[in-house]
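Example record

The entry below shows one chain as it appears in the dataset: sequence first, then structure tokens.
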Amino acid sequence: MNKVKNKKLYRTFAVDAGNIDIENRKVKVAFSSENPVERFFGNEILSHDPKAVDLTRLMDGAPLLLQHDPERQIGVVEVASIDNDKIGRATVRFSKSSEAQDIFQDVVDGIRSKISVGYLIDEMEQDLKVKNNYTATRWSPLELSIVSIPADSTVGVGRSENLIEENNVVNNNSQIIKIKENKMEETKVISNDDVLKSERCRVEEIEATSAKFVGRVSKIDELRSEAVKKGWSSERFKGEIADRISDGKPFEAPSSEIGLSQKEKAKYSIRNLILSQIPNTGVRAEYEREISNAVVSKTGRAPRGLFLPYDLQTRDLLAGSGTGANLVGTQYRPENFQEMLYANQLSVKLGAKSLTGLSQNIAIPKRTAGPTAYWVSENAAVTESAATFGQITMSPKTVGAKTDLSRNLLMQGLPSVDSLIQEDMAMTLALAIDKAVYFGSGSSGEPTGIVSTSGVGGVTITSNNITWSNLLEFETDVLNANVNSTNCAFVTTPAIQAILKAKVKVSSDSREFAQHEGKVNGYGVNVSSAITSGYVLFGDHSQILVGYFGNGLDVVVDPYSGSSAGTVAITSFISCDIAVRVAAAFSVASGVTS
């Protein structure tokens, strides 16, 4: 059910006019039940066992929205509960804004009669008896919304406290028990030992993650305590940490979770890994295959070829006798593949944050609207307002990059071959990831990049001719989002960079656009072949997250397609995702040719 976990879902219920407090602008609503809802995978059932529902977000001033639009908050959730009749209920209060008052009046008049809950599923179990039924055993309501089109109207405001659904019976403890063909439905039972083990692992992962960020995240101990107390998953804890980092460094150092010593790393050969997949080379690469199997055990994923752990390092090769003599004047740094990947990514150089070693979908908090400040008279109360928060989720998406290597190079056996192979793979993958950062479509397995993200600003280029006014408009667009201007930069193609260097601000002024050290309007201009022809992008790259899943690079060898040219095709796969935390931190123009 990975396609459901961490994906925001919705259910809709009816509003009952009998539960409206007009004077205080409050409405009592029922927002959830155990009524099955048909999804693409089967029937989804939300468990209403108190331990199954995490009301933390809903009880913490969750927003009342219009049509689930985070930009249109019309009220706040004051209280929420899961009642004995397995119904989730809440009291919402409408704000005094003009839009909110109009919507509230529509609710009073019965014109708007549907309320919807947005929620995330953290854990789901399949019914062992009824295979098409899936029960969410851990889920979190995030917000409530007034909506027009309902998905499920089985409960609403004022639903009876003693409501029992059809085909259910109530035992002496007032618990609802499902009956199917006069037999008790089978359910998956988890022992106390399993629960304790799972909880211990969760706490240990949070504490281990916390230790890595001492000195980088303020009040990390308080955040760790909150995560343990409130039952956050380790992935959510990482998301909260990512939201607090602003030092420009990668989110997490490359992982070494498979536990290789320096001696074991030195023994590893990428060349052997590749040759073992080519017939008649006589190379079995038993050690490298053992390492690949260790990655499989850690990640639970099967490779297309063999896994190369990110944390493997190259050797130091200095001028000298023997093999090293072939490398006079060159020193290969002992860096791991992940660092080589970063070194070739323009987006990372400009401040994009990298999250490594992810094993599950990750939810990152983002503020969708800030609190409002009000001037008040002496002894007058301040009008209540609160910041509203949403989430962006990241899930594994796989990119593959193909590199051709000479058979002769592979057969020579120089230690430097490993480093050259890593560099080729890192450069090719880095370009593909950068391309997705800027232009990922969000479909066909691609992440959603900046250009495809809703809310990104735009600059209109007239007659394909970029002007000084256009460049100032980029700045205005982005700084209105209150981003840090020192993090902002232009990204474009080499051709457009040349245009900017040659242009003057106005005909009566001989000063070029890029007069001072290649900067335009005080901001750096960066070029990459990942940028589509005619595009200029401007913004704060620290608002980009690039998440890497698992602990291995999947390497597949094709010795056949290039056999006539004496080359071997090496395809490397990496699982990652991209998220833009603040869309308004970027502005884009296209069609520039002059």
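Notes for this example: The two ends are 50 Å apart (CA to CA). The chain has three domains: 9-184, 192-244, 340-367+383-594.
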